[in-house]
């Protein structure tokens, strides 16, 4: 009976798919064969007053609930009838700032396994967004003319892609390291220039590299110094010398025993509750 | 004063107990108390309450002036007990097992009634013993009367005295089965001269009981009247009386008829005397003279000493509560070890006598606490073994003339004389049983001395059933074969002595035979004692062959298991003949490398698992050769579980050899890495991290030889690729290892730059290995895959300071502090802790060869239950390691079978909520450090994962369980383990064979909401399934070594790739369960919480749809579309998606 109610709900959906306020719902399916569809929720990209966003407000379409098998190319193809598309960006969570994907290396930041994502689609003109909001669907992700790989075929092609090209990797590493070395060299040069030169208030910066190196300013180092001091002090102190010290030690011992006793009692109480004293 | 044996009529000393008048009041308060405690219990069981909290006491409470009473108690605790916890635990246990006063009153009332009833049984006229026609119908004589003819006559007269004896009187009886022993002194008129001869006394005793039984059975007072045997002795039946109605389980009164005082002349019952004539028993007298009948004599003596023993015990234990508590604790201790039941068991009487004896020799003092008594007795039992003695005493002999102690030693393996010096209390105890008691005592002492936190739990609360305590067990079934064995072993005198009980007659000689044959392989051999039967009075007593199964337990000596050879004496030595006689046809003359020619036996065993089962060959061979017990009657239980960890197509080995081969190859590779030239920095360490390298990989890798035609090729990168039109190729798991490079000023100080430098090293490593050693390599940014001898190793370059760089945080003042970040923890775990763990467990395997089998069986089982995802490899390996490092109260397992059973037991009984599992690898933690770890655990409990496993390297955070299991998954594992353990133990204890050993490995599937069936074509490990398929697909491997210039397909497992996608896409909505070892079904469980309709929120629309419900727009999971997604994402792999429940409907 419940299933029937479901089916009715789905049929009603053909007339008017319920959508959250401000969004329009767009059914999407993997291919013709699927019966049920997911719903994309579309909206024009807006931000609250004062918030910064790199996406152009009027021309960007914000899409929720993009299924895992839907790639950026797919989305580009499916929405292009609405107008020329500048870019499509898929993300795990809604984020205001554009994720600079270009600088992410394929080797050092491999693409994660996709789940349901959100998309920012930037059209050339604001009209594209409006057209997209009136789409009826259902969109088909994989069609005969544009098949999308899934399952075994996808995993095999993923595997082939994962076999690395050592030359390309080497080139990338070398480029990065050259830039890095240059940056370090510059910093060192600057440090050398500043060495011994007082700033406008007359302070001189002392560094580890100078003629008279100092302790590095790390937490570990300062802890070490404190520890040393403490030990030095402890060595000088007398133990159980005065009567009151002796009394206090005894009392401390008693308190320890009491505390232990309380803990044990709690343990026993628990074991009793768990019937831990029934031997068999 | 001392309490003497009191006649039952006078028993309840009126003064102690007030009449019934105050009863209602008592009852009321009792009820109220019960209510309160029930409430308390209910509260304590609610989850929040059952968690231990760190104790918070105010300063005033901690530092107030102590009262005298408090000081006394604290001092007492320190002196008499190890710790206050132990004291409280012992007190609780005693409270639990001790008989309440209220029940005692009810029992006393019942006893008074019994006494009156017995006195009222009418006498019968005298008849000859062979004429039993006077016995009314409906009662059978509870004795096998073989041979039937016997001289003498019998009449029934009411007992001259009815006396309560035994533990009830002494106040040492313990719950749950309360027995009250009552001695019935048969009047002198019943007996004639020489009734001690030829079982006449026992016949009369049995007839006496039969008549009594007939009359008592008619009485409505009794719920049941049945026969049983006294301590399992077949000549001495006894009558069991139980109250009727609701009191049926309150008490069992056991009636023991006994002869009048001084009826038997002790000098006739010395162990050297004969009292069963061969002419009568065998029908012919022996020319060599009559054999002595020591056991028969002892049984007569026992009956006549009943009262004097009780007197002695009352004097000895007296009013000292500590001694009684001690006896009660010892009884619990024995019972947990299954040592107290049956003929020759170490029962409560024996242990009370031992305590009395130790009191008399001043080894125990009457002011000692129960715990101290327990300790002293264990110490005594354990030390007696160290001296190599099997005799327990004896300098409390008082009367003269004494028979020579040597006479006793000649006929009894264990001698413990009572104060008369005539009666061996341990007459029925076999040497094996005594050795077992000693072994247990030594283990327990070691445990107590270790001051372990949970000593009490392990010592007194943990049962040690045979199947879980011994490495292998052997069932002899059917028992009737032992009759033939007795003849083959020429045990006629013993049969004559034991009145035809061939099971106990054969027991001693059989265990001696096997002990001799197993020598170097055996640590301890124990045997079960036949259970004491009970039967209705209208039935014949059960036959010897009906007393179930004889089960032997073998505790193996791992160092002796590696040899396939029994080395005998040199051929010309006189002992050679004995050796040949002992081993029969298996003994052969062999020439050894040192030139000696010796007798020797060589067993067939190629692999480690076969060597472990050599005792099987030894046992079957010796039993057939010497005891005429055919192989079909010997059911050896030791290697059945091996089938679960055997590689597909492998039958002779459980994988230890294959693992060793992979480890060997790894060693070669690490040597190459050490000596590698041409790297800018030198290699400072090479460490393994993969389970293969600690011998815990369930299915060890095999060298791959790909058939090239099966794959597509990526020529320019010398790699093979899977083909969509072929079945999934064989799964090749890369064996991971870490290669540390030396520190140097050249390393950059920036995390991103370090990654690039490491990548450069990975590339360089691949180049150099390919150039210098012609190995096929493939480098990525994070690792280099190396193909060597068909194994693929994944070498990861590590820089020691990298975790530190990842931790550095610069404060605004320019101070650099170190803070753990997920990335740094992850890196430290993989490159520092994991290698340490791997090498520690590798070492453990060298010490305990069974570790590999246990750890692999355990992992196999957890994953077969589809719970593999929740538990890391390392956490399960550590649990298995704990079984070896903390085996108490057992010894470390020497067979995978027993280890696996203990794994199930540990998992199902461990209180994960309140305790960390401390695995003391290499014994690095001291007792104090462990205490510290425990208190640290309590304080941090809420921040720690649900399952906490701590090691010397990881004392606080439990790294291997950080990411799971969740509380639900752990709970599920606990439930499944608790269900599997009794099933498996029952199977293994079944003398007819275990049946289907894979039963407990099959997962329950009915709990899942959706099942996703996978097609075997794309499951690369399909053949590893719990139920291996008869046929599977070709996986593109050659059986012959082929060219190995191309990198095989590495780490390609479609079900795992599919699962990763499912979890990423639907992880918020459902849990996915799968057995990575060839499972062909994925279980899906919807998360109930995510099916609650939610208001719309842009951040969590994943897979949801908006529906209007009651005029409101809410989001619910789009289940129908999701079910179709399951099929879409796994196209080609998924066979069917079965939705099995309607739970998901909203």
From TrEMBL, chain A:
Any one GO BP annotation for this protein: rRNA processing
Region: Disordered, residue numbers: 1-26
Pfam short name (any one): RRP7
UniProt xrefs under InterPro entries: Nucleotide-bd_a/b_plait_sf, RBD_domain_sf, RRM_Rrp7, RRP7, RRP7_C, Rrp7A_RRM
One GO location term (cellular component): cell junction
SUPFAM superfamilies according to UniProt: RNA-binding domain, RBD
Compartments where found: Cell projection, Cilium; Cytoplasm, Cytoskeleton, Microtubule organizing center, Centrosome; Nucleus, Nucleolus
Signal peptide: none
GO MF annotations in UniProt: RNA binding
Residues in Rrp7 RRM-like N-terminal domain copies: 22-80
Ribosomal RNA-processing protein 7 C-terminal domain residues: 162-280
Record carries keyword Acyltransferase: no
Function: Nucleolar protein that is involved in ribosomal RNA (rRNA) processing. Also plays a role in primary cilia resorption, and cell cycle progression in neurogenesis and neocortex development. Part of the small subunit (SSU) processome, first precursor of the small eukaryotic ribosomal subunit.
Subunit organization: Part of the small subunit (SSU) processome, composed of more than 70 proteins and the RNA chaperone small nucleolar RNA (snoRNA) U3. Interacts with NOL6; required for NOL6 localization to nucleolus.
Family of the protein in this entry: Belongs to the RRP7 family.
Name recorded for this polypeptide: Ribosomal RNA-processing protein 7 homolog A
TrEMBL record, chain B:
GO CC term, one of those recorded: CURI complex
Major location (coarse): nucleus
Chain intervals with Basic residues compositional bias: 32-42
GO aspect biological process, one term: tRNA export from nucleus
Domain Nrap protein intervals: 180-314, 323-462, 468-627, 644-846, 848-1003, 1005-1136
Pfam family, one: Nrap_D2
GO molecular function, one term: RNA binding
InterPro entries hit by this protein: NOL6/Upt22 (IPR005554), Nrap_D1 (IPR035082), Nrap_D2 (IPR035367), Nrap_D3 (IPR035368), Nrap_D4 (IPR035369), Nrap_D5 (IPR035370), Nrap_D6 (IPR035371)
Keywords, in A-Z order: Chromosome, Nucleus, RNA-binding
Protein location: Chromosome; Nucleus, Nucleolus
Disordered: annotated segments: 1-50
Biological function: Part of the small subunit (SSU) processome, first precursor of the small eukaryotic ribosomal subunit. During the assembly of the SSU processome in the nucleolus, many ribosome biogenesis factors, an RNA chaperone and ribosomal proteins associate with the nascent pre-rRNA and work in concert to generate RNA folding, modifications, rearrangements and cleavage as well as targeted degradation of pre-ribosomal RNA by the RNA exosome.
PANTHER family in alphabetical order: NUCLEOLAR PROTEIN 6, NUCLEOLAR RNA-ASSOCIATED PROTEIN
Quaternary data: Part of the small subunit (SSU) processome, composed of more than 70 proteins and the RNA chaperone small nucleolar RNA (snoRNA) U3. Interacts with RRP7A; required for NOL6 localization to nucleolus.
Family under the similarity heading: Belongs to the NRAP family.
Record protein name field: Nucleolar protein 6
Encoding gene per record: Nol6
């Amino acid at each position: 009976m419940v299933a029937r109610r479901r089916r009715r709900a789905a049929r009603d959906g053909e007339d008017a798919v319920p959508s959250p306020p401000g969004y329009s719902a767009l059914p999407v399916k993997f291919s013709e064969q699927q019966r049920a569809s997911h719903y994309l929720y579309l909206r024009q990209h807006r931000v609250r007053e004062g918030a910064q966003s790199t996406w152009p407000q009027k021309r960007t379409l914000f899409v929720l609930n993009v299924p895992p098998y839907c790639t950026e190319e797919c989305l580009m193809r499916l929405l292009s009838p609405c107008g020329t598309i500048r870019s499509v960006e898929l993300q795990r969570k809604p984020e205001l700032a554009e994720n600079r994907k270009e600088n992410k290396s394929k080797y050092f930041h491999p693409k994660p396994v996709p789940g349901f994502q959100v998309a920012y689609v930037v059209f050339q003109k604001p009209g594209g967004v409006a057209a997209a909001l009136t789409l009826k669907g259902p969109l088909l992700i994989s069609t005969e003319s544009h098949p999308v790989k899934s399952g075994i075929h996808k995993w095999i092609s993923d595997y082939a892609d994962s076999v690395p090209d050592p030359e390309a990797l080497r080139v990338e590493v070398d480029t990065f390291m050259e830039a890095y070395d240059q940056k370090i060299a510059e910093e060192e040069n600057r440090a050398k220039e500043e060495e011994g030169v007082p700033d406008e208030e007359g302070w001189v910066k002392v560094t580890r590299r100078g003629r008279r190196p100092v302790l590095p300013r790390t937490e570990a180092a300062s802890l070490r110094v404190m520890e040393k001091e403490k030990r030095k002090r402890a060595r000088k102190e007398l133990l159980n010398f005065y009567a009151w010290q002796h009394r206090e030690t005894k009392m401390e011992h008693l308190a320890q025993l009491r505390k232990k006793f309380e803990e044990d009692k709690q343990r026993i109480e628990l074991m009793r509750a768990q019937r831990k004293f029934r031997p068999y | 004063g001392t309490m003497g044996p009191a006649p039952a009529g006078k028993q309840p000393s009126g003064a102690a107990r007030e009449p019934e008048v105050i009863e209602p009041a008592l009852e009321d308060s009792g009820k109220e108390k019960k209510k309160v405690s029930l409430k308390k219990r209910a509260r304590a069981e609610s989850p929040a309450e059952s968690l231990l909290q760190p104790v918070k006491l105010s300063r005033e409470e901690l530092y107030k002036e102590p009262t005298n009473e408090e000081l006394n108690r604290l001092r007492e605790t320190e002196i008499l007990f190890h710790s206050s916890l132990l004291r409280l635990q012992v007190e609780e246990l005693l409270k639990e097992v001790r008989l309440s006063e209220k029940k005692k009153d009810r029992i006393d009332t019942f006893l008074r009634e019994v006494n009156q009833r017995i006195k009222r049984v009418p006498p019968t006229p005298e008849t000859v013993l062979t004429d039993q026609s006077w016995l009314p119908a409906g009662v059978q004589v509870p004795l096998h009367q073989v041979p039937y003819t016997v001289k003498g006559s019998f009449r029934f007269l009411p007992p001259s005295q009815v006396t309560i004896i035994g533990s009830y009187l002494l106040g040492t009886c313990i719950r749950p089965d309360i027995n009250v022993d009552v001695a019935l002194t048969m009047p002198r008129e019943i007996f004639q001269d020489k009734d001690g001869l030829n079982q006449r006394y026992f016949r009369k005793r049995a007839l006496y009981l039969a008549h009594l039984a007939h009359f008592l059975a008619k009485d409505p007072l009794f719920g049941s009247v049945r026969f049983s045997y006294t301590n399992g002795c077949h000549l001495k039946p006894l009558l069991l009386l139980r109250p009727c109605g609701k009191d049926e389980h309150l008490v069992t009164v056991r009636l023991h008829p006994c002869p009048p005082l001084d009826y038997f002349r002790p000098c006739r019952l010395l162990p050297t005397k004969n009292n069963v004539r061969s002419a009568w028993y065998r029908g012919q007298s022996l020319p060599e003279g009559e054999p002595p009948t020591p056991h028969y004599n002892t049984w007569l003596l026992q009956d006549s000493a009943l009262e004097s023993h009780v007197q002695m015990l009352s004097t000895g234990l007296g009013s000292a509560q500590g001694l009684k508590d001690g006896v009660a604790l010892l009884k619990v201790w024995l019972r947990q070890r299954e040592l107290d039941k049956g003929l020759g068991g170490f029962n409560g009487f024996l242990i009370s006598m031992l305590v009395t004896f130790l009191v008399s020799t001043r080894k125990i003092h009457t002011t000692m606490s129960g715990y101290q008594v327990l300790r002293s007795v264990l110490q005594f039992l354990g030390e007696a073994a160290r001296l190599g003695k099997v005799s327990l005493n004896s300098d409390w002999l008082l009367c003269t003339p004494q028979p020579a102690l040597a006479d006793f030693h000649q006929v009894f393996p264990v001698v413990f004389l009572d104060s008369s010096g005539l009666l061996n209390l341990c007459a029925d105890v076999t040497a094996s049983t005594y050795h077992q008691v000693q072994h247990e005592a030594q283990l327990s002492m070691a445990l107590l001395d270790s001051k372990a936190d949970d000593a009490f739990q392990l010592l007194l609360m943990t049962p040690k059933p045979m199947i879980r305590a011994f490495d292998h067990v052997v069932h002899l079934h059917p028992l009737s074969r032992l009759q033939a064995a007795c003849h083959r072993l020429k045990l006629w005198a013993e049969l004559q002595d034991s009145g035809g009980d061939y099971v106990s007659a054969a027991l001693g000689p059989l265990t001696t035979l096997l002990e001799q044959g197993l020598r170097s392989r055996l640590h301890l051999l124990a045997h079960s004692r036949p259970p004491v039967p009970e039967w209705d009075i209208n039935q014949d007593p059960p036959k010897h062959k009906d007393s179930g199964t004889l089960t032997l337990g073998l505790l193996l000596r791992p160092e002796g298991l590696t040899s396939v050879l029994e080395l005998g004496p040199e051929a010309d030595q006189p002992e050679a003949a004995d050796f040949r006689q002992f081993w029969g046809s298996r003994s052969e003359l062999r020439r050894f490398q040192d030139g000696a020619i010796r007798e020797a036996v060589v067993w067939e065993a190629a692999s480690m698992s076969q060597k472990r089962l050599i005792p099987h060959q030894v046992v079957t061979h010796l039993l057939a050769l010497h005891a005429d017990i055919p192989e079909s009657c010997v059911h050896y239980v030791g290697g059945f579980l091996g089938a679960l960890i055997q590689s597909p197509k492998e039958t002779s080995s459980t994988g230890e050899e294959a693992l060793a081969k992979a480890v060997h190859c790894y060693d070669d590779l690490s040597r190459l890495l050490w000596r590698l030239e041409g790297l800018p920095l030198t290699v400072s360490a090479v460490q393994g991290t993969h389970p293969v390298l600690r011998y815990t990989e369930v299915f060890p890798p095999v060298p791959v030889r790909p058939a090239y035609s099966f794959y597509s090729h990526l020529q320019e990168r010398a790699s093979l690729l899977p083909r969509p039109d072929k079945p999934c190729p064989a799964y090749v798991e890369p064996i991971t290892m870490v290669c540390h490079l030396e520190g140097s000023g050249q390393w950059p100080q920036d995390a991103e730059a370090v990654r690039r430098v490491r990548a450069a090293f990975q590339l360089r490593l691949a180049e150099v290995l390919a150039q210098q050693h012609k190995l096929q390599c493939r480098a990525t940014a994070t690792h280099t895959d190396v193909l060597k001898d068909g194994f693929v190793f994944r070498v990861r370059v590590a820089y020691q300071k990298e975790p530190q760089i990842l931790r550095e945080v610069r404060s605004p003042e320019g101070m650099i502090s170190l803070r753990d970040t997920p990335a740094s923890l992850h890196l430290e775990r993989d490159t520092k802790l994991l290698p340490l763990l791997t090498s520690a467990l590798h070492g453990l395997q060298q010490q305990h060869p069974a570790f590999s089998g246990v750890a692999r069986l355990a992992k196999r089982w957890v994953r077969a239950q589809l719970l593999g995802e929740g538990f890391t490899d390392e956490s399960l390996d550590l649990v298995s390691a704990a079984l070896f490092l903390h085996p108490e109260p057992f010894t470390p397992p020497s067979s995978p079978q027993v280890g696996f059973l203990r794994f199930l037991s540990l998992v199902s009984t461990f209180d994960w909520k309140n305790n960390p599992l401390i695995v003391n690898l290499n014994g690095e933690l001291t007792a104090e450090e462990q205490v510290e770890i425990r208190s640290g655990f309590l304080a941090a409990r809420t921040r720690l994962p649900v399952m906490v496993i701590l090691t010397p390297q990881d004392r606080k955070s439990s790294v291997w369980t950080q990411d799971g299991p969740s509380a639900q998954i752990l709970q599920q594992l606990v439930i499944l383990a608790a269900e599997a353990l009794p099933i498996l133990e029952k199977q293994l204890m079944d003398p007819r064979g275990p049946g289907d050993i894979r039963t407990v490995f099959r997962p329950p599937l009915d709990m899942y909401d959706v099942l996703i069936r996978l097609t075997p074509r794309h499951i690369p490990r399909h053949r590893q399934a719990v139920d291996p398929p008869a046929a599977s697909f070709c996986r593109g491997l050659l059986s012959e070594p082929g060219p190995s210039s191309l990198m095989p397909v590495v780490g390609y497992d479609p079900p795992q790739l599919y699962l990763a996608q499912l979890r990423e896409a639907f992880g918020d909505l459902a849990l996915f369960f799968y057995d990575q070892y060839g499972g062909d079904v994925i279980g899906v469980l919807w998360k109930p919480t995510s099916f609650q309709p939610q208001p719309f929120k842009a951040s969590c629309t994943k897979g949801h749809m908006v529906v209007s419900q009651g005029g409101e727009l809410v989001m619910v999971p789009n289940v129908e579309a999701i079910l179709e997604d399951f099929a879409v994402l796994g196209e080609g792999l998924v066979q069917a998606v079965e939705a099995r429940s309607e739970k998901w409907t909203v």
